[in-house]
Amino acid sequence: MTRTAPPSGRAEESTTAAALHVGTSDIRALITRNLRQSGIYVAFVVIVALFAILTGGVSLSPVNVTNIVLQYSYILVLAIGMVIVIIAGHIDLSVGSVVALTGAISAVLVIGQGLPWWLGVLAALAVGLAVGAWHGFWVAYVGIPAFIVTLAGMLLFRGLTLRVLDNISLSPFPAEYQQIASGFLNGLFGGDGYDVFTLVIGAVGVAGYAVNGFRTRVARITYHQPVESFPLFVARVVLVGAVVMYFAWQLANARGLPVVLIVLGVLVLVYGVVTRRSVFGRQVYAIGGNLAAATLSGVKVRAVNFWIFVNMGLLSGIAGVIYSSRSNGAQPAAGNMFELDAIAAAFIGGAAVTGGVGTVVGAMAGGLIMAVMSNGMQLMGVDQSVQSMVKGFVLLLAVTFDLYNKRRAGAAR
Amino acid sequence: MPEPVVAMRGIEIGFPGVKALDGVDFRLLPGEVHALMGENGAGKSTLIKALTGVYGLDGGTVTVRGEPAVFSGPAAAQAAGIATVYQEVNLCPNLSVAENILLGREPRRPVWQGGRIDRRGVRRRAGELLARLRLDVDPDSALGEHPLAVQQLVAIARAVDLEADVLILDEPTSSLDATEVAELFRIVRGLRADGVAVLFVSHFIDQVYEIADRVTILRNGRLVGEHLVAELPRLDMVAKMVGHELAVLADLDREPAAEVAGDPTVTPVLAARGIGRGGAIEPADLDVRPGEVVGLAGLLGSGRTELVRLLFGADRPDAGSLQVRGRPVRLRGPHAAVAEGIAFCSEDRKGEGVVGDLTVRDNIVLALQARRGWARRIPRRTADELVARWISALDIRPADPDALLRNLSGGNQQKCLLARWLITEPRLLILDEPTRGIDVGAKAQIQQLVAELAGDGLGVVFVSAELEEVVRLSDRVAVLRDRRKVGELPRADASVGRVMELIASGGGHLA
């Protein structure tokens, strides 16, 4: 029998009580069921552990953890937009050029013209939006495949970058602008040698994770869906909490909370909600999953596609600001190949090549896997050529794994 | 009794949480047409996939021609003479008919001549095969130019060339009209006379009685029985398929909406005047009044789907006009139609309906949410309530709003798509082949639902290839032939015979 009415208050109480008792402890079954989602996190932990051992613990040192965040933040920002583009069944090859262009515009205004730093930021974001609208127009309203449109954009905006910069680098930015990528919030709540604020933020994050997890669990039980047993649930929360708090502790012991990490965290939260809960986000999944069905259901496919690219442009602008701030200037060749790192992050994070599947959090994990690998190999002094090859293999393996899972799921029907 | 060419004993296959097959026995004799019957989820497809090696067995044995056989996949089964033609045509529409028939085993020039494909040889061999099946198709034409039915026959020609002595036809008739089915059966009979064992899966009971010698019936993954078709009365067969739920099959007696049917004083919820599109459907008129079921009858390719797509704005008409509740409208696309309270359930469930990677909930609210726009999100609680109500009202199984739609059976997917539209509380519901390829029980439920909805004042356009179904449900039947509306029959005059007469009248190509 089905519930025809939503659970009443009483029923909710009882399911909350049930949430403490029901569920399976069969870890193997749980892992199998969630392999597609959990596989990526397992891989992440394994890779982190591997490089911690290979580098004799250096890769997990406070300074290095901070470094990884600073060094790869802009790729992660791009990956957020990219995974949305990929879920909808498109691709964006232009983001590297757009990062260069937006950074260049900002540099010309702030360094060249001596305008205030925030004007440079706004201009970069505006240019990002305009570029996104340009791509969105061609993809959504003219109907040119995104591959072609953004390939053209890649050339177009690289050329525009060269023109704007007159083929030379601009440097340095004023101190405020540099703070965006290399600033820290430290000592806000005091602390002796470690930053309490960072720890508080970490704790808030863990608490949010636990509450959210418990609510999901209650909801699943309401609909009689399989859940893990309560001790296992607690173990999972404790494990994730420990990892997050360890990470926060490392940051707190280094220089505090990087500004970039706050920006990134806010973006991940916002886009996590947008993709999972907002109408726009669900329509992105519907379009990527079955374009004809979405169209016939009255989804305004063109509008959705247009805004997907506008959004990608905005995030490219943000990445452009972060990158120019970090490199303290604008170079004609900035952002080269960033698009490939962002695309790789999305695919390693479980996005499906055919569209319709993928998550922002997954893309973040995918991006971090790449980041930890690159960083670890740099620490070990591995040659650039080997680094590139290893990354290539990891991407191939990730997509193979994804396909293997999908076939298995398909066969089970 | 001759030795069975295929014998399966005690077959067991389990999926996570489900026992798909539980100790099923099955045998196939040479020179027989053996029907495999059962509702959706009974295990028909699973049994076929167990035989052809798509699934590994959890228990039981398969013997082919007396030898134990374990196939690693369809290719291995095919090499052993077991050919399968699936419901969906699995060919390349961009290649020619001849290339499709011989794909992967094209005649080659000798190696010393370069080993190239012998194009003339391909054409000749394909021509022979088509001639054997007496199919009048140009081997050089692109496959995609032909109607689905011809593509299906080409798929059979391809399978036959594999010199198979077992031919599995998995719902081959679900998209064919009567003439094409007759054509298919002629070919099947020819193969049977040649000693080929044909395994025939179908939902159409009439067809089973027409073509099959023997029938195996499955229910919920278990064997119900094996019978000679001639010795099994129809009602018994149906009873064995559905178990005790026979009541739902009682004839639908719905009160005709006589007072509005054809009454010019009632404002139609939708009125089309001379609406048409070059190459798809000649200009046609159609009125649908509240509480009325208007059936569209016609053969495959008669323009049924083309017409309803124009009514929904899925394609742009190049002639004619539409009025919604007396107000002229121009539909700029499906979203405009949805905003006008029109709902359209496409015939192509998989291609145009199901979003497999989304949950049942997301699928059901898709159209309603699209109409409300981005800013007015349906609150989670309301959505849960609505979805739970429709899951229970339509008896969708499993009753889990978070299940991925891809994991539901065909009949349940169809119910979800119906729910997607009913949740929008439309004034006009266009159903294009809503009962195709789903089991008897779900079919009866859907027919019942249509009758009830019309009783509640909804206008319904009902398209189906099954004339009986159209005639029984409709207040009026509009008949299409050759992309043209050729007539309209009020309920009193509508019978399968009359509809066929209208379709046949002047239809020279049918003779």
Q: What portion of residues of chain B belong to β-strands?
A: 15-25%
* Poorly predicted residue ranges of chain A: 1-13
CATH topology of the largest domain in chain A: ABC transporter involved in vitamin B12 uptake, BtuC
Q: Give the CATH class of the domain at 6-89 and 163-252 in chain B.
A: Alpha Beta
Q: Order of strands across the biggest sheet of chain B?
A: 6-7-8-3-9-10
Label the overall shape of chain A: globular
Largest sheet of chain A: 2 strands, antiparallel
How many β-strand runs of chain B?
20
Tally of distinct domains of chain A: 2
CATH homologous superfamily (4th level) name of the domain at 6-89 and 163-252 in chain B? P-loop containing nucleotide triphosphate hydrolases
Largest protein-protein interface: A-B, 38 and 49 residues
Helix content range of the residues of chain B, please? Answer: 25-40%
Q: Rg of chain A from C-alpha positions?
A: 22 Å
Structural class of chain A: mainly alpha
- The CATH topology of the domain at 6-89 and 163-252 in chain B: Rossmann fold
Give the fraction of residues assigned to helices of chain A.
Answer: over 70%
> What does the average pLDDT of chain A come to?
86
What ranges of chain B have pLDDT less than 50 throughout 5 or more consecutive residues? 244-250, 506-511
